Fold these 3 entries.
Entry 1:
Amino acid sequence: MFVVEIREQVVLVTGSSRGLGAAIAKAFAREGASVVVNYYKSEEKAQKLSEELGRNSVAIRADVRDFNQVASMFEEAKKYFGKPVTTIVNNALIDYVFDPMNRKTPETIEWEDYLKQLEGAVKGALNTIKAGLKDMKKMRFGRIINIGTNLFQNPVVPYHDYTTAKAALIGFTRNMAKELGEYGITVNMVSGGLLKVTDASSATSKEVFDLIEQTTPLKKVTAHEDLADVVLFFASPWARAVTGQNLVVDGGLVMD
């Protein structure tokens, strides 16, 4: 199978202006990849990160739920780098805060809440794959890494809409892996635990983080960089024979 070293890849990280996405973008840049910093609302942070990463990075705005915007982003990236996107990290999270005290319950949650998260997770991933597929098929190479969560295996806090969307994403991941493998395209998922600390987890109390530390075999809360390095693995030649997999990165809290 044809493989491409990370330093030769053009990597699109959706929702990468901050938090986990920014950590993933930095990890790829550290390894010499060309990086597209995608953002939707946080233009200032995205531009600042792109400047930090250097000339091998560009910040491009696109709502992943809108295929036309996504397709334009791929074309802009191809024009900027002079070669197409080889690697997609579907990380974008649509307006979600992990707040255990004020979360939606079965009495208050609505179908629209589920749809919002499904559109961000599954529709967003579908749009990026469709936008990049023609070039990936032509290259006979592609790496697609979807960001999941350990909550659909162990819903310690039942964030119904978010967790359900990520559970759907693993089915999406495996179907795409089956469909695209013959073209040299792998599709995998990395599922982290609660990360300390992102904008999304800022409402999580110290007591919750302390509990995670106490009950996790490694006795630590997962950091952005812990998960980012595993994303690198799936993009690397070392993972050339791995597809359709979900790797949980949470210090051993969930053992599958």
Note: The longest helix spans residues 111-139.
Entry 2:
Amino acid sequence: MTTENRPTPAGAPRAGTDESPSRPAAAAPRPHTGTDPGPSRPGIRAPGEEAPVRQPRARFLLTLLHLAALGVLGPVVFGAVAGLAGAGVGLIVVLGLGLVLLVGLVYVLFGVAWFEVARVESLYGLGAPPLAPQRRVRPGFAGFLLRIWHQAVDGRMWRSLVDFALASVMGMAVVWLFQRLVNSAVTAFAPLGSADTVPGPLGFGIPASQAPWVGALTVVVALAGIAGLVLLHRVVAVALIGAPVREVELTERARASAEQREGAVRAADVERTRIERDLHDGVQPRLVSVGMTLGLAQRKIDEDPQGAKELIGEAHTSAKAAITELRQLARGIHASVLDDRGLDAALSALAGRSHIPVHLDVRMGGRCGREAESAVYFAIAESLTNAAKHSRATGCRVTVRLRPDGTLWARVEDDGVGGARVLPGGGLDGIMHRIRGAQGTVRLDSPQGGPTALEVSVPCAS
């Protein structure tokens, strides 16, 4: 459905707020691109996604070329690494210069390991994620040293280095076997010459009459050796780089689960703080005022009935306002229409209560999960509240789609002054944690001068 709603006197549901610079600038809303941020983990394939397929012959030839190149470059790389390690150890007593070289050595080894993972992944498509540097877990210099230590003892990095070393050794063997193959091919035609004895494939002399079958046999052995090394390279690469992929995936899932749990806890804390603030700043003072007004009316009811009547009327008005605020607060905690009629109807009611015009474009072929719909609803509600309070927007566009992959996607864009930032405890902070708690993703784009666009994407299975 597509509707456009104008503001009504009723107040929008209150939620946490985030500040935007108050600049008297406004920009027209940018057209919706329909892009979904969805930052998946780099290098890890989604469930059901297949690895890129190479033809066996092409993969064989590529592996052979890789081994030949490593047979030439591998010794150079390890020579440079050995030289850097020797210089670092030798200069460790010279004003600590050796420590700088050893730190550099750690990251040189990381670079070699990263290259090896990328190389093997390009050949076999094992689904191995790119090797990433260790993150700093503590601030300051101690955190830097701890990060270097974790990088130096990273098991995945060392497995990749071992694979690189073994591939280099196999590459040197491939180069040697290729040389023997060429020599054997030349030896096989030795009887065409006049010499009685010719150099054999291994360097020793053999009779010219035996050269054809010796050369042919050596060619077959060399080809078999090259093919065996190519197959052995795959076995070793899968064992050292491909096997830990499952472990990495489980680690990523555990980390994502921890982030989801942290986001849910943080969202609940932000929501609790918001409710406490709204009760303390809004409903509570109004109810206290109602009580005081009724107390004054009780004292005046005998001597000044008219004045008491006016005080009772004032208390009645304040009580109705308190009921309205409680209703809005309850709606901010849970929108009953969301369960009864779905996200489409809930957003229509929300847009109708907005203080700024809202262009609503919702296209859903059915219902989504309750958690996903609730997360998207409150993200949109908070965005509209922020647009009305801080961005000086004159209009807002809300787009919601239920995508074929089972993802509920929404985009809220206003034509305000922009500059929105995520502040701890603020409305955008609550949006971030609520969406992460539902295993979703959030992207905020709010340059100075506007416009501000917020995109959320939540899996319906959440």
Note: The chain has two domains: 2-42+253-459, 52-126+129-243.
Entry 3:
Amino acid sequence: MSFLFRGGDPALDLVNTVIVEAGAPLDLIPTPADLAAWTAAAGLGSPAAVSPEVHAAVLDVRSALKEAFDAVLAEQPVPTDRLNAVLADAPGTVLRAGPDGLQLLPRVDLTADPAALPWVLADAGARVLTGGGLLRRCANHDTCVLLFLDTSRSHTRRWCSMEACGNRNKVAAHAARASGRPPGARPRRSPR
């Protein structure tokens, strides 16, 4: 399965596991096995298996994060009860030196025991909510529901991915200009 990692953070990438395909929501991690594959692809560890209980807990965290991120984007009060319930099971964090300097990482081994995965993802989401980063929704509102952190220097990033949504939008705008119709207008169909 192909996962999308465009959010810039594991919590946003988790929320982005529900995409829109053919006009309908599509869950990219509907089973515990899919969640194990996503966890490995996200670089969080490679659990041999994820239990149905952990899978259900992660789906609940995903729902709580989506609700919280949507509240931030709508400039509404952020609901915290569900996330705080998961964060109360704190396994803790540790500083580790990496190729890009110091990193604050969970003090858990998800490869050996994925039971802490809900906490790891809730913690990542809490960091997004409190980190002061620029949380954005892809400007391609018609077909994309992905969220991301705008880390661009000018803070003007509009697309989850320039290669996907940004390019599609620019091609559509160019075609509209070339045909003389206003941007966003549908092309006329010729009679048969």
Note: The first strand starts at residue 18 and ends at 21.
